[in-house]
Task: inverse folding
């Protein structure tokens, strides 16, 4: 069969990939792929309870990055886990609340602090709102060193204590410059949290529920946004100090986090990387179903860490992401997702929605804050379906279905400035709520789920650090530029800009974003071994075929030769599915 489209590598290459359900290694030469072994319940059975030595012997030939290890009990009852594990998940999620709550608190607080400090310069207005994202750029990069030095638990503790200090600083700020300093400080801790929490959850949570837990971070950010709007409603009528109480409220989840973190276990994977095997064993015994599950995972993690060390020895991993073509394509798609997560305009609504209602639509401060509360509730509720639909319908499909809705709502918001006050208010409310309902289960969580799936294990931390950095960079640009955009383009021009950006984003994602739903890691590896041009041509052909089907026009029944058609792709590589 012709391989003009599919060009297999001619040299052996090992690419370690991470997915929601398991870790495998893709090791292929011309037309070969490794065989997967399945370790079922049989290795748990026997006349006596298995010891660590037993599992080391049983799994000595196992490939922790490829083989299947889930028992039937884990598959049928994945959520039957120890309370200690759920405590870890809850404490980690509290960190995401800190990130979310600030987004909405500043929306309500800025109505008053801009008046209090007599701020009229649009650049200062944007800088005060976006200051946390600027600090998060520093925090997200510093977190790599901090996580390696003191671990995930230590990083979360420092970030939570730092958040307490930053919140108090904001609440007591005597000038806008001091307020900006406090927001930059808070941003540093937010960057550490957003880089640490997803890694901790992926390393500590059992394979069977790792996929669902991967979406928890975005859900808790959305919940934090909603809680922040509740705080805004509580303090909006308190003159002079209301905005200070709003900004100071961030210290509440941070205080809870700082008290709870010391009682949380450390990541077992980090402990093993540091050679603290006995501690890792104790941790796994406390967060796994049984001692045998814990010992099995201890052996597998040790083997995986050893493999990772071999892969990373004498390599500049950041350089790998730029020089290895497949990794460069993965990085491009990851940054593309982060770009349009921000340039759809969601954080413009989140940071400035109260200001939009009061200054642009013309309603009172109290009504504006109440309307914002409804927007926050919409965000929290519509993030919930992601647990069920992201694996059912796929990441790519969710993006392509929801982008047109978001674009239409930006256009509707554009037209909410040409009628009477209450007609404008009604149109704007509809635009904001439908926009949020479309964003929350798709463009919100999808980038955070998709990026860890496509990066190989040995550069996953570096890949995620870079994409997280760009996410905060784009967030800063969007948040900082909005007040100036309002002054120069008016609100209508701003909404038109984001409508156009969403349209461009849909086109780029249509051509360049492969689907990861239902693909094993070796199949994903095959997709990104091909050029972006080949992937784009295939998506174009698929689009034309679907349009012809929609209008009842004849189409070929032959499968498209591509890097994206699973069965044909495997067959062309000489692999049986």
Result:
């Amino acid at each position: 069969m012709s391989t003009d489209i599919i060009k297999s590598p001619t040299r052996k290459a090992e690419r370690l990939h991470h997915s929601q359900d398991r870790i495998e290694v893709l090791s292929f030469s011309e037309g070969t792929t490794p065989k997967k072994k399945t370790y079922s319940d049989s290795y748990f059975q026997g006349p006596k309870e298995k010891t660590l030595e037993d599992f080391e012997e049983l799994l000595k030939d196992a490939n922790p990055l490829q083989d299947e290890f889930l028992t039937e009990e884990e598959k049928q009852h994945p959520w039957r886990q120890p309370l200690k594990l759920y405590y870890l998940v809850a404490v980690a999620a509290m960190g995401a609340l800190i990130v979310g709550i600030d987004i909405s608190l500043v929306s309500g607080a800025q109505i008053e602090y801009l008046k209090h400090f007599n701020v009229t310069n649009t650049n200062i207005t944007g800088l005060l709102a976006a200051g946390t994202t600027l600090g998060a750029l520093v925090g997200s990069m510093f977190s790599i060193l901090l996580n390696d030095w003191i671990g995930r638990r230590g990083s979360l503790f420092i970030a939570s204590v730092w958040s307490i200090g930053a919140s108090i600083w904001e609440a007591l700020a005597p000038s806008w410059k001091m307020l900006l300093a406090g927001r930059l400080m808070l941003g540093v801790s937010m960057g550490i949290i957003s880089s640490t929490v997803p890694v901790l959850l992926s390393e500590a949570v059992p394979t069977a529920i790792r996929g669902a837990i991967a979406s928890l971070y975005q859900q808790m950010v959305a919940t934090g946004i909603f809680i922040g709007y509740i705080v805004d409603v509580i303090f909006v009528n308190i003159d002079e100090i209301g905005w200070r109480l709003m900004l100071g409220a961030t210290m509440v989840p941070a205080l809870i986090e700082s008290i709870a973190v010391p009682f949380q276990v450390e990541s077992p994977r980090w402990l093993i990387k540091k050679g603290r095997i006995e501690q890792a064993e104790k941790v796994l015994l406390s967060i796994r179903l049984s001692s045998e599950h814990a010992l099995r995972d201890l052996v597998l993690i040790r083997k995986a860490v050893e493999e990772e060390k071999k892969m990373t020895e004498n390599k500049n991993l950041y350089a790998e992401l730029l020089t290895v073509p497949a990794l460069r394509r993965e990085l491009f798609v990851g940054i593309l997702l982060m770009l349009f997560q921000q340039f759809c305009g969601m954080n413009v609504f989140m940071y400035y929605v109260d200001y939009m209602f009061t200054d642009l639509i013309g309603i009172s401060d109290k009504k504006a804050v109440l309307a914002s509360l409804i927007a926050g509730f919409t965000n929290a509720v519509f993030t919930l379906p992601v647990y069920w639909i992201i694996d059912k319908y796929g990441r790519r499909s969710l993006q392509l279905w929801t982008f047109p809705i978001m674009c239409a709502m930006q256009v509707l918001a554009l037209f909410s400035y040409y009628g009477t006050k209450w007609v404008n208010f009604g149109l704007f409310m509809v635009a904001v709520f439908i926009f949020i309902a479309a964003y929350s289960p798709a463009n919100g969580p999808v980038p955070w789920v998709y990026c860890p799936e496509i990066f190989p294990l040995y550069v996953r931390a570096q890949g995620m650090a870079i994409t997280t950095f760009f996410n905060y960079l784009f967030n800063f640009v969007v948040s900082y530029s909005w007040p100036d955009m309002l002054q120069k383009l008016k609100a209508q021009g701003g909404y038109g800009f984001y409508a156009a950006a969403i349209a461009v984003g849909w086109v780029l994602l249509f051509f360049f974003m492969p689907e990861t739903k239902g693909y094993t890691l070796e199949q994903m590896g095959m997709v990104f071994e091909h050029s972006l041009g080949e992937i784009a041509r295939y998506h174009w052909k698929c689009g034309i075929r679907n349009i012809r089907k929609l209008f009842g026009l004849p189409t070929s029944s032959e499968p498209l030769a591509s890097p994206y058609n699973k069965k044909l792709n495997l067959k062309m590589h000489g692999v049986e599915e």
Strands lie at 13-18, 23-28. Residues 530-572 form one domain.
